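2024-03-11 09:14:02 INFO worker-7 job=invfold-0412 stage=load source=structure_tokens
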């Protein structure tokens, strides 16, 4: 059993650094795997050898790559964690699945469902009873309206509002 919790972040870029900053309140030891960073303790393909010592999260923007790496982590038996800023508001009645990041000043209201591997950025609002499906990114100050459904792997840009989605090819924005 570990004495101090350790976090392994896949991706040492800007988003990885942001996740590290948010995670510091829970994890005294945080390391990266990244194929192109001197800050990393190893390459992405080295992940299996860290599975017994670390919890893990993927901090890579590309949703396809994020999903691929998430599934590899699961396959190797990692505990996939969610990182939630203490400066965000997340309702006790919201469902947040593993591998998500909720940044400072974000709001996730009652009955909202945030599916695995999704990023809710600073100042974003996910309103009541809405669903944000897997591996999405809801950018700063974007709004997911009440009862809306965001399709898998969707990137909702800065300041955009999604008011409803009845099926993945039928969604509306207001700017």
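2024-03-11 09:14:09 INFO worker-7 stage=emit residues=175
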């Amino acid at each position: 059993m570990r004495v101090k919790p350790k976090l392994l972040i896949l991706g040492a870029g800007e988003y990885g650094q942001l996740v590290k900053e948010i995670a510091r309140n829970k994890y005294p030891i945080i390391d990266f795997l990244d194929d192109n960073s001197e800050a990393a303790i190893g390459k992405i393909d080295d992940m299996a050898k860290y599975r017994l010592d670390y919890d893990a999260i993927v901090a890579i923007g590309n949703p396809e790559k994020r999903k691929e790496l998430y599934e590899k982590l699961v396959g190797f038996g990692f505990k996939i964690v969610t990182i939630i800023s203490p400066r965000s508001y997340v309702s006790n009645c919201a469902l947040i699945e593993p591998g998500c990041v909720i940044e400072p000043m974000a709001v996730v209201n009652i009955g909202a469902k945030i599916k695995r591997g999704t990023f809710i950025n600073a100042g974003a609002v996910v309103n009541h009873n809405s669903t944000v499906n897997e591996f999405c990114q809801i950018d700063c100050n974007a709004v997911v309206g009440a009862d809306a459904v965001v399709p898998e792997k969707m990137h909702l840009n800065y300041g955009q509002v999604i008011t409803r989605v009845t099926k993945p090819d039928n969604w509306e924005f207001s700017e």
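2024-03-11 09:14:09 INFO worker-7 stage=report msg="Residues 12 and 111 are 33 Å apart (CA to CA)."
2024-03-11 09:14:10 INFO worker-7 job finished
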